[in-house]
Specification:
medium-chain fatty acyl-CoA dehydrogenase activity; 8-stranded mixed sheet; Butyryl-CoA Dehydrogenase, subunit A, domain 3; Butyryl-CoA Dehydrogenase, subunit A, domain 2; two-stranded antiparallel sheet; oxidoreductase; binds flavin-adenine dinucleotide; Butyryl-Coa Dehydrogenase, subunit A, domain 1
């Protein structure tokens, strides 16, 4: 199947990003030690320069904006490789390839594009996206955070929770229920400046992931900060939400693939009762099941990515299946490899304890497995 789907060009690209990650990222990360959360800025700058020279900058961003302009399928193949290091799940390639910006930013007014989007394409810091709310997660039809228009300005009030990348992002994107001067309520997107008066509270999740609660109590925005039309918010987010699930799924698989390799190496070396762990049938079964499950999950991710590229009608359904399969499978694989490592797996000498926690979170991130089940069955009933 892999032979059929991967062109020679894509195989070459995969090889290039694999050696980039192994040659440049992993050694820096190993030198930095197991407790460090990101590489020092000069090191990241050097990696970014190397990546740009090789045309490996912003994989998913259009080439006319300065990105690599890869298709979704190409991106999932590449992403699976570049996450294969200690903090690769959250910072693929330790930030070497930059953070993509959502495609709906094409709807920005030209002055916003010049001021925020263009510089961010250069810096690669990306943006944060504040959607979900504490009261009604995963339900964008029921937003309580609002922006009310009075005398030409939008007065934003409310709260958003578990927002990622607030600390690094060049700017933010906010989805609110806009209330127009005629009293109509419509979901709308706005761009947030780093200097806007927004309350922030840090939340550390399972001591591996930083997120923020955002409070809007005195924010006033000019209409020029609007992205797209009033009421276009959810529709503009649709493609981004679907593609993000597929791209995140590829990252989960990359981590699980690396964990499996680490597990196999360890089991060949670790001797108990006179022979390597890899000779015990119970251990061998764990590897065989992991490989089979990973391959099945990978094909569901590839399937979703191809459907995204072809704009198939059922792409959102395929993306949900991919996210469900990839997050659940990756969590199981890392759990097994931890078990095979015994006590050694729980130390920071190997990244398994970190990946175990990150993948535990992945089953809730974006859409939880339970809400994915709900949406998948809903699709089947309505088909
Ligand atoms: C690491 C991380 C990063 C995140 N990043 C961002 C971000 O950048 N921007 C952003 O806007 N949001 C972000 N989120 C928010 C995220 O999408 C929500 O946390 C997630 O949707 C779950 O919402 P909740 O935590 O409020 O759980 P709840 O909605 O309270 O759910 C609690 C439990 O009930 C289950 N449940 C809920 N509804 C149903 C249902 N209808 N049927 C069956 N079971 C149900 C859930 O599956 C879950 O197990 C992030 C979350 C995490 C964990």
């Amino acid at each position: 199947m892999e032979e059929l789907l991967l062109s020679d060009e894509l195989k070459m690209l995969r090889k290039t990003v694999r050696s980039f990650t192994r040659e440049y990222v992993v050694p820096f990360e190993q030198d930095a030690g197991s407790t460090i959360e990101q590489l020092p800025t000069p090191v990241v700058n050097e990696l970014q320069m190397k990546a740009k020279e090789r045309g490996l900058w912003l994989f998913g961003t259009r080439s006319e904006w300065g990105g690599a302009g890869l298709s979704y399928f190409q991106q999932v193949v590449v992403l699976e490789e570049v996450v294969q290091h200690r903090f690769g799940l959250q910072q693929p390639g330790a930030g070497a390839f930059g953070e993509d910006l959502p495609c709906f930013l094409r709807e920005c007014m030209p002055e916003l594009f010049e001021k925020y989007v263009k510089p961010s394409i250069q810096s690669g810091n990306g943006c944060y996206i504040a959607l979900w709310e504490p009261e009604e997660s995963n339900n964008l039809d029921n937003l309580t955070c609002y922006a009310e228009k009075k005398n030409g300005k939008w007065f934003v009030r409310g709260k958003k929770s578990y927002v990622s990348n607030v600390e690094h992002a060049d700017f933010g994107i906010l989805l609110v229920q806009s209330i127009t001067e005629t009293g109509e309520r419509k979901p709308t997107l706005f761009l947030l400046d780093r200097k806007d008066p927004i309350g922030k509270r840090e939340q550390v999740l399972l001591d591996v992931q930083l997120s923020h609660e955002l409070f809007f109590e005195q924010l006033e925005l000019e209409d020029t900060r609007r992205i797209g039309g009033v009421g276009d918010g959810v529709q503009l987010l649709e493609e981004w939400l679907t593609s993000s699930q597929v791209l995140m799924s590829a990252r989960y698989l990359g981590i699980a693939q690396k964990a499996l390799e680490i597990g196999i190496d360890y089991a060949s070396l670790r001797i108990t009762r006179g022979k390597p762990l890899s000779e015990y049938p119970t251990i061998r079964t764990m590897f065989a099941v992991s490989e089979a499950e990973l391959q099945a999950a990978r094909f569901s991710v590839w399937n979703a990515a191809l459907k995204m590229d072809q704009k198939r009608k059922d792409r959102d359904h395929a993306a949900k299946i991919a996210k469900l399969n990839a997050s659940e499978t990756a969590a199981k694989v890392v759990d097994r490899v931890l078990q095979i490592h015994g006590g050694a797996g729980f130390t920071r000498d190997v990244p398994l304890e970190r990946w175990y926690k990150e993948l535990r979170i992945s089953r809730l991130h974006f859409q939880s497995s339970e809400t994915l089940h709900e949406s998948i069955v809903q699709y089947l009933l309505e088909k």
